[in-house]
Specification:
heterodimer; A: Nonspecific Lipid-transfer Protein, Chain A; globular
């Protein structure tokens, strides 16, 4: 697990991870869903890998398989990513504004959005 | 090899929605409305114009990768309400498309001996598709690609076998007789406008990229490739039809594929026609219903529609309310279209809406190419002047498409005017509602922030 990095994106991802893993309803959404979530900032050359396994988000990593068979690739500026993953911004609205880019199957996009709806209520 | 497979996948997605069963109904209407010469010319002409439009869309897609569709580009260029107007136009198109498909499903099943009322058949088919989506069962991408290739293959096979058939039927003489007469029922704008419907939905590949890299070349080039492929398919199919049947016979059927099957006179022809119809319908129902439900879900999530619309079924992760409402609306549209035999007016209305959307998106590119801070990684190969011409011509074709059904064009025109008034009115009121709600604090966030406050 990463620690000691001052990145606002990483901080928000860690918040996101702990919120999801502590929320029973969010974990129910993770059942039978095990993608590799790649989070990439477009302005700070940061990239994080979140593996979802056994209805929980595994420790965040710096490296991973970019060509994983089942992946969800999320891109945006650092501030956008930080705002979305700490619940400050509605992720769906960011996607519809083209501020956040999500490269994934429709079903995966709805699943991810539903998780943010459950943990942040927005 | 992997790149080729990915590119082929995007081409098949781009062509998949356009290869609806009702596209062949429109093709029959086109061939029946105007002379074979005009009809055969309208298809490549519509294809050429759409190549220019695809250039603009490809450039915009590379500017805003993964953005959910043309509504985003128009919203960026002309403001939020425009995006909502386009979303509602798309929802109307989906309603017409699914309604038209239901009618064709009924016609195919009746042809195969099922004597059920068309509305009952539509209810059963829509019910099955809805249950599948509610269960969270999404058709894998590979299966979608496979079904598109099946449709392409069967249409080519059916057309080629009919064309190779040594001699045309005796009715061929009347084809040429009618084509040289002065009873040209449709203007060029109507013919090409109807032709645009045959390519409907080619742009739906733009939100479906699986990697940022694919937006630099692969997705922008997949669209013109799909348009070229569709032009070939429809031209071959039309050529085979006009070779063997007179205008009035072609115009009199919603399932012209069975006319070609009858030319072959063997069980193979019927098998090809049934296979092509079933797979085309499956593709359209799946992509159409799912796409429309996701649009409703997205509107709700961004705050334009009540939150109720974005309810998720936890067991499957399916947007249950959006799916049910979309299916209910599609069922109503299907029953009306089936009961009153309105397939051609419905698809003509959809063609008109699509022409207006394509015209608008060309102007969106024109504006954003100069003003947006985001620079495209793909540049349209067409000069700006040609894009402007396409932007001016597409709305004219939209108006032309409204005249597709010579018997019902005043009603289609009136319906278009009323529906556009409703769409624009609803979009603006929802936009104002959303703007007002953005001034309220977000509850439940780790940091509560009031939009607009610094």
């Amino acid at each position: 697990m990463l620690s000691g990095n001052g990145s606002e994106v990483l901080t928000s991802l860690q918040t996101f991870r702990s919120k999801v893993n502590a929320n029973g309803r969010a974990r129910k959404l993770l059942q039978n869903w095990e993608p590799l979530v790649i989070v990439e900032s477009t302005d700070a050359s940061e990239r994080y890998f979140l593996r979802i396994r056994d209805t929980a988000i595994q420790p965040i990593e710096f490296e991973g398989d970019e060509d994983a068979k089942h992946s969800v690739h999320i891109r945006g500026t650092s501030s956008e990513l930080a705002a979305v993953f700490c619940g400050e911004k509605n992720a769906a609205r960011s996607v519809l504004n083209a501020d956040l880019e999500v490269f994934a199957a429709d079903k995966d996009q709805v699943k991810l959005d539903a998780i943010s709806m459950v943990i942040w209520g927005i | 090899m992997k790149k080729f497979a990915e590119f082929a996948g995007y081409v098949s997605i781009s062509a998949g929605l356009a290869l609806a069963a009702s596209s062949f109904t429109m093709l029959a209407a086109l061939l029946g409305t105007t002379t074979p010469g005009w009809a055969l010319g309208a298809i490549p002409l519509a294809g050429l114009l759409l190549l220019v439009v695809a250039g603009s869309i490809g450039s915009l897609a590379s500017m805003f990768p993964s953005a959910p569709g043309l509504s985003v580009y128009l919203g960026k260029a002309f403001g939020g309400p425009t995006a909502l107007v386009v979303v509602f136009m798309y929802l109307s198109i989906f309603g017409c498309l699914v309604g038209g498909e239901s009618y064709v499903v009924a016609a195919v099943l009746r042809r195969m001996g099922a004597e059920w009322p068309a509305a009952a058949i539509a209810t059963v088919v829509l019910g099955l598709v809805t249950l599948t989506h509610l269960a969270g069962l999404e058709v894998p991408r590979k299966v979608q690609i496979f079904t598109t290739f099946i449709v392409v293959g069967t249409v080519f096979a059916l057309s080629a076998l009919a064309l190779l058939r040594g001699h045309a039927l005796p009715t061929t003489a009347s084809v040429h007789a009618s084509s040289t007469g002065s009873d040209v029922g449709a203007s060029a704008a109507t013919a090409v406008g109807m032709g645009v419907f045959l390519f409907l939905g080619f742009e739906w590949v733009t939100p479906l990229g699986r990697s940022p890299k694919h937006y630099a070349r692969m997705i922008p080039w997949a669209m013109p490739t799909a348009i070229g492929l569709l032009t070939l398919i429809y031209s071959a199919f039309s050529l085979a039809l006009v070779r063997h049947f007179p205008r009035e016979v072609i115009a009199g059927t919603p399932i012209p594929q069975f006319l070609l099957a009858s030319v072959l006179g063997t069980p193979l022809g019927t098998a090809l026609a049934v296979t092509m119809s079933v797979f085309a319908m499956a593709n359209t129902f799946n992509a159409g219903l799912l796409g429309a439900a996701r649009l409703l879900y997205g509107l709700s999530r961004e705050g334009s529609l009540p939150r109720f619309f974005s309810r998720i079924w936890f067991r499957t992760g399916a947007p249950v309310v959006a799916i049910l409402i979309t299916s209910a609306c599609a069922l109503v549209a299907a029953i009306i279209i089936c009961e009153f035999n309105l397939t051609v007016p419905a698809v003509a209305y959809a063609a008109a809406l699509e022409c207006f959307i394509y015209g608008a998106v060309t102007w969106a590119w024109w504006r954003l190419d100069k003003t947006s801070q985001k620079k495209p990684s793909f540049r349209s190969p067409f000069p700006r002047a040609l894009q402007a011409v396409a932007g001016c011509v597409m709305p004219v074709l939209g108006v032309g498409a409204l005249f597709a059904d010579a018997a019902h064009w005043p009603q289609v025109m009136a319906f278009f005017a009323v529906s556009m008034t409703l769409i624009v009115g609803t979009a603006f009121s929802l936009y104002l509602r959303r703007t007002a709600s953005e001034n309220y604090p977000i509850v439940g966030a780790s940091k509560v922030k009031i939009s607009g406050a610094s």
